[in-house]
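Explain this record to help learners:
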Amino acid sequence: MSRRCELTGKGVQVGHHVSHANNKTKRVFRPNLQDVSLASDALGQDVSLKISMSALRSVDRCGGIDAFLLKSKDDVLSARALRLKRQIAKKVAAAAA
């Protein structure tokens, strides 16, 4: 999945560059994607994901990658993030039992 956030699904948007003379030409708005490593407490390892910086702020606000993935909806997550969510849910359920 190129140019798409693995946690929020944020991708490229299109619009117009408008000149002073009101001429409109096509342009793209790209999300600020970075490769980051996030520490998963439940799995006990670092997870490398390609996410937007706004998603990183959301992860920090939620209290970590584990809490963010457990509360996020499945339809916006990438296949890799969905697999991580299932692994984390298994570990949390096993620890609670």
User: Anything to note?
Assistant: The chain has three helices and four strands. The chain has a mean pLDDT of 95. The longest helix spans residues 79-96. The helical segments are 53-62, 65-71, 79-96.
